[in-house]
Amino acid sequence: MIRRVAITGGTHGNELTGVYLVKKWQNDPIPVTRESFETLTLHANPEAIKACRRYIDRDLNRSFATADLANPATHYEATRACELNALLGPKGAEETAVDFILDLHSTTANMGLSLVVSSESTLTWEAVRYLCAREPKLRVYRWQGDEEDAFVDSIAPNGFAIEVGPVPQGVLRSDLFMQTETLVYHLLDFFEKSNRKAALPELHEKVTVYDHVALIDYPRDANGDLNGMVHENRQDRDFTLIQKGDPLFRKLDGSVICYEGEEPLYTLFINEAAYYEKGFAMTLARKIEL
Amino acid sequence: MIRRVAITGGTHGNELTGVYLVKKWQNDPIPVTRESFETLTLHANPEAIKACRRYIDRDLNRSFATADLANPATHYEATRACELNALLGPKGAEETAVDFILDLHSTTANMGLSLVVSSESTLTWEAVRYLCAREPKLRVYRWQGDEEDAFVDSIAPNGFAIEVGPVPQGVLRSDLFMQTETLVYHLLDFFEKSNRKAALPELHEKVTVYDHVALIDYPRDANGDLNGMVHENRQDRDFTLIQKGDPLFRKLDGSVICYEGEEPLYTLFINEAAYYEKGFAMTLARKIEL
């Protein structure tokens, strides 16, 4: 049984889709209310939302590693991570305050409507399969990224993030807002049907997953500053194949750097603003059936 | 005679096109070097560039009103405005350090390749006509905005800003980088031909200008926070007409607000991230021949 579900928005304070969806539901909870379980909606990073910045001191969505939660908090996001862990977790416990965390994100990359999944739980992947059946445009990225097991949704036993794009930081787009909203309602319907053992739609045996392989950084000068950009032929081509010899970057001087990998892979999160400082221009993934 | 031209980038520290074009030319000034005049390239707001934020304390591109420059500086951008005024101006003087300021900007709105012009000078408008002849996609916005005569380019007797979009804050797009670069080289060629009294291409008698009429704010709640977004049918439709009854905003609750103006006007700077805090969702302009 699913008893409590949390929907978090504003984990990154400048990703406004989640910030304003949560605001909408806090004004009127009826659309996220179902009979068989309780839905919590909350702003994960209120100070970053006020400042319209990704974070104040450190990326909150990399602040939930078990070791971090055990250490005394030394800055704003560390304190907030401990609060959220107490409110929604605690992480790794037999009994947690919520059964599922849905974390709402947006990206400047052309990721369309996608899920970023790190959890391996059965319930998580049943929910993924249900959403893929309801929304054929939806894509699934199995993430093993720059820091392991440190996402907000890792403090509950089940969960994932919705990523929608492209939308600039600090901007609300009505089309992506409504697409995200619809996907959230499908997920809540899934929990309701699941609790009631009601007829779930025929789920495909398999789901197509983009499985994380590697991170690629921008070309940089001796000081670590960018001296190149994503090549114009690669820009916006998230979830497409790149093959050896395809243009990857254009340097500021006009010259071109090509992809040198032997294996053709899919490019994701191309030119996401928040990843400049993390040191990746895009991620590479392998397409698999799971 | 044009003796000195300044190209400023990073007036807003998170508009990376100008930041990295200036960086490129500081590494290799040959592309901006012409025989008959000197070209300066500089980062207008170095601290904001370091922080990858629009500004530290106040929008630098609203800090050049004559009254502001006369007051003792009380914060970072006020200090920097006085420095730039000493370096490139002084504003309103008979003799200024530079004859023309080209200020490089980008926007999250779908403004394409456009000029934002406040100067009324003959040289400025000759340059506009030249660029329009060279680049048919270029559009011209005559701005009288939220604060008058306070742009960086106002400290020289001639100048304007290039605005390119859509590009998120904190992101470099190769296609828009190269389009901006080409436009800059055309402008420098214009000054060179003009100084040499060389044959200028046939300029049209008239130039199409989008002439500023009004600013429109987002729908907001009693606390001043947004409770609506640009309507999905208006999003990305910069430089298109809006007529009475056309959808303008979608509120968070799903309802629609329509445009009520009697006069059909053109919508510009639709959903620019930096204008949320300034209180405008878009600007309205009248299309005229000048």
Name of the CATH superfamily of the largest domain in chain A: Zn peptidases
Structural class of the secondary elements of chain A? alpha/beta
Tell me the major beta sheet of chain A: 10 strands, mixed
What is the 3D shape of chain A? Answer: globular
Number of structurally distinct domains of chain A? 2
- Largest interface, chains and sizes: A-B, 34 and 34 residues
How much of the polypeptide of chain A forms β-strand, as a percent range? Answer: 15-25%
Describe the 3D structure:
The structure is a homodimer of 290-residue chains. With 290 residues, chain A is an alpha/beta fold. Chain A folds into 2 domains: 4-205, Aminopeptidase, CATH 3.40.630.10; 213-285, N-terminal domain of TfIIb (Single Sheet), CATH 2.20.25.160. Helix content of chain A is 24%, strand content 25%. Chain A contains 6 helices and 13 strands. Chain A has helices at 16-27, 46-51, 66-70, 76-88, 122-134, 174-195; strands spanning 4-9, 38-43, 100-106, 112-117, 139-142, 158-165, 208-216, 228-230, 240-242, 247-251, 256-258, 265-268, 282-289. In chain A, strands 2-1-3-6-4-5-7-13-12-9 form a 10-stranded mixed beta sheet. A 3-stranded antiparallel beta sheet of chain A has the order 8-10-11, with no helix packed on it. In chain A, helix 1 (16-27) links the parallel strand 1 and strand 2. In chain A, helix 5 crosses helix 6 (174-195). Chain A is globular and about 60 Å long. The mean pLDDT of chain A is 95. Chains A and B meet through helix 1 and helix 6 of A and helix 1 and helix 6 of B.
